[in-house]
């Protein structure tokens, strides 16, 4: 039965329930000092400590007694995350309202991410490489693999959760303080300066469906008081595990490739099940390329004397007794067998009389990977003399990520080539060297035979049912008894030392040094090594009729484990001095200056290079590799001038010199104006830069990312040969077209220049009464010379229109839909180099409201509202054309189709009864139009949903969380959370390819559904 559900009504109903619940006061967050955008007075009080010590706020090198800076700063405390039921700091950062667009989530690891096993933040929709992540104001090593093979970032999973004090998010450019990459903002993880006593935690969680389990254990112990004893030392360890979640553990449509039950206004979705029937119940037409994706072997007679592997007759199941593997048999009707194309040609002439309809997502799809994480941290801090302080810190963290994939592929095109022509067992393509379609030969000979294998020196092939007829057997299908499995093990080692103290009454110094090393071991099983496949076919040692009968040694030879270890290193030393120059009417004129040296290196060898030949590699594993290092010398300064009590000016600048010859100066000016005590006006203007990543400038094997075909890269004239049009793309086009994807191969360019940015912010903060505040901040960022490969759309459209390919692009055709088929094939690869070309603009608004109200002597209500709105996000190209992405799926290629929703926000409320606190959070992630201008659409024209089986706009997504904490005594606290109280699963989005039928950035943890956490915290 088909569902014509009113999705908008359902979402609105959920929103009303959540709002009603929240409005009643049963909701949550910590005090304003721990809210997402906090009262500056409260922040200062908390950060400065009980004695009002001076602090350094992220974005400045000068210590100060208040947190009111010209730049907007969001503060997140660990207590805030606990009250929201968030188990890790990385997840808390992912939920920041200003985190939007191409963020990288842990769940994307299970959906083909380049940087599998990692998590990264993307402020302002400007991607992971424009947000700088710091640990205690110092840089961290990049993750050894790049996001999409190009974008360097810091993995949020390397954060040692239990020693984090709070996180500061500077929502402003900060290259004047920190150098490259701080264009969209800075995330600064601040660890605990000291810890006394013993603290432990045990937590477990599980969804209401009994899956998605996670566990967390931690223990921290410390001794000494820096002020009283002159020292403090603490050590902390933790263990965290999250279990794999599969698509078949979630309801329709997240568990199926068949979208025919998603209907709207009489239009229903396509059936993408392998060899599935269309929405009219008819068999849509046979394609060996599609049937090959299933896990049942089919064979067809092939002429061994034909150079092109000419085939005759119909395909048939190789082992009829075994039947269809994990799939449903469908016997073609006489009408199916007699079906013709518009020219009268039989479209099912090669089709088997029985096909196997397999739902790959239901059988093999993975939502979240297995994650295991553990670590150890230690810190020693000592007072030196009367006023100086020194520290040493060490962190070790290991993350293990594993996830299952699809059945093992044997008939395919090799991954993107570099040194040799691409090898294929899927078709006859001249570019690939004229190789033939995968076939089981008539005769098999011992391995090492160097002459032709004939009846004279071989035996009839036991795998080939046509051998006695003297015919080869063309074979399609995946191995039914083997699936791909990927694992990564990341180890991060970080050490830091530092000392600070006074020079005299007016001046002080601080020197810090850090070193960090990461090694990432990738391990992939279940992937066929091409030459070994050719070997076992030639000698008959692999049993294709009954794959389960093969020995482990045979399986290991066919699918040897692929391993590679990548490393990333960072060393940084920096020193600053600061003090007062003269007294101004508003206070002392403060000046700070510093110097810094930094060394960065990445060595990530290819897991699947073709350097030894086109067949000496695996199917389906990406070959990307990069190696590079650089040294950076920097000098920077800052001036804070309180002109009068109401006006403070701030000016800073930084000069960076790179060992490759690149240099840059980044200035910044800011002002805050307080006309009355209750109102603060603030604004900044800055320039910044992003250095070309190692992947963009130093890749030794180019990156190739795959993008699913969309209707608007085609045209009606091209699609007519496949019996469909752009308008009927989802309904009438064969799976070869509508489910196909093309590879975007990006070639590195060592001559790239840095991206340059110009940013300004304007904001107002109003505190009409104590513990009540409201703020609005406007941001405007412009990046010029943005590093990109030119938009592929013109090249794709030119190919499909039969026009000359534009200069700077190379198009590589895919194999045809069937052997010998003369129709123009789809595109396999688009190749182009990185260039400095585009201008990217992002502008928007941040909103915040915070209040803490004492209802009576025993009840306190705290509320915090945070929201971020993207007014416009666009790219302008050298030819003057502009693409706009806000509120759509764009930038499609950059975000994996997860898009750029305009709105994101949270509303948190708390009722604190003293020993008991009830916490609730309303999470909002805006919807977006199913269009993407970088896919050939017009802005918000619904170009990715031409079939009309869903509304043009993906719904807004609201979830509501509850948390309760009971403080038994000073030593024990019990807590429990119910996340996604109303069990609202994410809005349906069949276009994004980062997850199946939903958006992994918008959906986040929502795909888990209603989720329960409970735990205990112990403190002594």
Low-confidence spans? 1-52
Termini distance? 60 Å
Q: Summarize the biggest pleated sheet.
A: 22 strands, antiparallel, barrel
What is the number of strand segments?
A: 46
Helix content: 10-25%
The class by helix and strand makeup works out as mainly beta
Helix tally equals: 17
Strand residues, percent: 35-45%
Overall average residue pLDDT? 89
The global form is: elongated
Radius of gyration: 30 Å
Give a quick set of tags describing it.
disordered N terminus; 1020 residues; 5-stranded mixed β-sheet; 11% helix; mainly beta
Describe this structure as you would to a colleague:
The protein is mainly beta and 1020 residues long. It has 17 helices and 46 strands. The strands form 8 sheets. The protein has a 22-stranded antiparallel beta barrel. The model is unreliable at 1-52 (pLDDT under 50).
Short description:
With 1020 residues, this protein is mostly beta strands. Helix content is 11%, strand content 42%.
């Amino acid at each position: 039965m088909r569902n014509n559900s009113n999705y908008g009504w359902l979402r609105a109903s959920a929103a009303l329930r959540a709002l009603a619940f929240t409005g009643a006061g049963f909701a949550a967050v910590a005090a304003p000092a721990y809210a997402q955008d906090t009262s500056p007075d409260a922040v200062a009080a908390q950060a400065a400590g009980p004695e009002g010590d001076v602090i350094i706020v992220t974005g400045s090198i000068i210590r100060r007694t208040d947190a009111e800076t010209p730049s907007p700063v969001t503060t997140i405390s660990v207590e805030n995350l606990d009250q929201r039921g968030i188990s890790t700091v990385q997840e808390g950062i992912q939920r920041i309202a200003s985190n939007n667009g191409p963020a990288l989530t842990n769940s994307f690891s299970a959906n083909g991410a380049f940087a599998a096993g990692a998590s990264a933040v993307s402020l302002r929709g400007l991607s992971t490489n424009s947000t700088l992540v710091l640990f205690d104001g110092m840089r961290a090593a990049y993750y050894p693999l790049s996001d999409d093979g190009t974008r360097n970032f810091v993995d949020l999973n390397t954060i040692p959760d239990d020693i984090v004090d709070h996180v500061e998010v500077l929502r402003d450019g900060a290259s004047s303080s920190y150098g490259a990459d701080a264009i969209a903002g800075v995330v600064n993880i601040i660890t605990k300066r000291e810890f006394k006593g013993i603290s432990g935690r045990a937590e477990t969680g599980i969804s209401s469906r009994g899956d998605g389990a996670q566990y967390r254990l931690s223990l921290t112990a410390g001794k000494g008081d820096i002020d009283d004893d002159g020292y403090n030392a603490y050590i902390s360890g933790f263990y965290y595990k999250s279990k794999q979640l599969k698509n078949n553990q979630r309801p329709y449509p997240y568990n199926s490739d068949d979208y025919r039950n998603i209907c709207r206004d009489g239009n229903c979705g396509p059936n993408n099940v392998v060899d599935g029937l269309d929405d009219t119940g008819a068999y849509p037409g046979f394609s060996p390329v599609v049937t090959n994706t299933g896990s049942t072997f089919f064979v067809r007679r092939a002429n061994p004397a034909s150079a092109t592997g000419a085939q005759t007759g119909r395909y048939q199941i190789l082992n009829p007794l075994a039947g269809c593997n994990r799939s449903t048999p469908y016997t073609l009707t006489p009408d199916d067998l007699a079906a013709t194309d518009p020219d009268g040609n039989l479209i099912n002439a090669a089709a088997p009389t029985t096909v196997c309809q397999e739902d790959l997502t239901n059988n093999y799809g993975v939502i979240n990977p297995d994650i295991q994480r553990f670590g150890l941290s230690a810190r020693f801090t000592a007072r030196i003399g009367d006023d100086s302080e020194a520290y040493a810190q060490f962190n070790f963290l290991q993350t293990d990520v594993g996830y299952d994939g699809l059945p093992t592929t044997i008939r395919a095109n090799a991954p993107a080539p570099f040194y040799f022509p691409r090898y294929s067992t899927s078709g006859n393509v001249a570019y690939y060297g004229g190789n033939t379609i995968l076939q089981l030969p008539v005769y098999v000979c011992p391995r090492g035979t160097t002459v032709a294998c004939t009846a004279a020196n071989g035996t009839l092939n036991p795998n080939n049912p046509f051998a006695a007829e003297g015919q080869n057997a063309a074979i399609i299908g995946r191995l039914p008894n083997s699936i791909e499995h990927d694992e990564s093990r990341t180890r991060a080692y970080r050490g830091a030392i530092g000392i600070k103290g006074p020079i005299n009454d007016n001046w002080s110094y601080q020197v810090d040094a850090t070193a960090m090393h990461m090694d990432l071991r990738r391990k992939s099983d279940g992937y066929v090594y091409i030459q070994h496949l050719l070997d076992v076919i030639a000698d008959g040692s692999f049993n294709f009729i009954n794959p389960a009968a093969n020995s482990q040694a045979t399986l290991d030879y066919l699918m040897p484990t692929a391993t590679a270890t990548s490393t990333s290193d960072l060393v940084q030393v920096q020193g600053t001095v600061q003090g007062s120059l003269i007294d101004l009417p508003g206070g002392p004129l403060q000046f700070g200056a510093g110097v810094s040296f930094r060394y960065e290196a990445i060595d990530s060898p290819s897991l699947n290079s073709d350097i030894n030949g086109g067949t000496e590699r695996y199917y389906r594993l990406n070959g990307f590799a990069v190696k590079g290092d650089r040294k950076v010398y920097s000098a920077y300064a800052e001036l804070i001038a309180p002109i009068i009590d109401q006006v403070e000016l701030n000016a800073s600048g930084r000069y960076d010199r790179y060992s490759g010859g690149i240099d840059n100066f980044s200035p910044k000016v800011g002002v805050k104006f307080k006309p009355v005590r209750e109102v603060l006006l603030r604004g900044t203007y800055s320039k910044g830069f992003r250095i070309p990543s190692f992947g963009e400038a130093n890749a030794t094997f180019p990156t190739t990312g795959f993008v699913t075909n969309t209707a608007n890269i085609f045209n009606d004239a091209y699609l007519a040969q496949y019996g469909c049009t752009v308008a009927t793309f989802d309904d009438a086009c064969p799976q070869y077209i509508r489910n196909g994807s093309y590879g975007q191969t990006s070639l590195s360019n060592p001559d790239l220049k840095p991206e340059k940015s110009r940013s300004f912010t304007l904001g107002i903060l109003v505190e009409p009464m104590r513990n009540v505040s409201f703020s609005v901040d406007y941001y405007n960022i412009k990046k010029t010379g943005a590093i990109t490969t030119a938009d592929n759309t013109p090249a794709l459209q030119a190919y499909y229109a039969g026009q000359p390919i534009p200069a700077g692009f190379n198009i590589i055709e895919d194999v045809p839909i069937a052997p010998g088929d003369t129709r123009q094939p789809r595109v396999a690869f688009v190749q182009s180099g990185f260039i400095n070309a585009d201008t990217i603009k992002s502008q928007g608004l941040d909103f915040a409201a915070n209040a803490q109200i004492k209802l009576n002597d025993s009840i306190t209500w705290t509320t915090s509202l945070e929201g971020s709105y993207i007014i416009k996000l666009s790219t302008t190209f050298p030819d003057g054309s502009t693409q706009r992405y806000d509120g759509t799926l764009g930038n499609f290629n950059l975000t994996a189709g997860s898009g750029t929703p305009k709105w994101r926000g949270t509303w948190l409320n708390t009722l604190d009864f003293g020993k008991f606190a009830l916490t609730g959070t309303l999470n909002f992630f805006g919807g977006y139009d199913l269009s993407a201008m970088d896919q050939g659409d017009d802005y918000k024209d619904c170009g990715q949903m031409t079939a009309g089986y869903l509304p043009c706009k993906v719904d807004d997504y609201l979830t509501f969380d509850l948390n309760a904490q009971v403080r038994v005594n000073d030593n024990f606290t019990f807590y429990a959370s119910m996340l996604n109280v109303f069990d609202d699963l994410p809005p349906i989005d069949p276009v994004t390819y980062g997850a199946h039928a939903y958006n992994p950035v918008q959906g986040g943890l929502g795909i888990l559904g209603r989720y329960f956490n409970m735990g205990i915290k112990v403190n002594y």
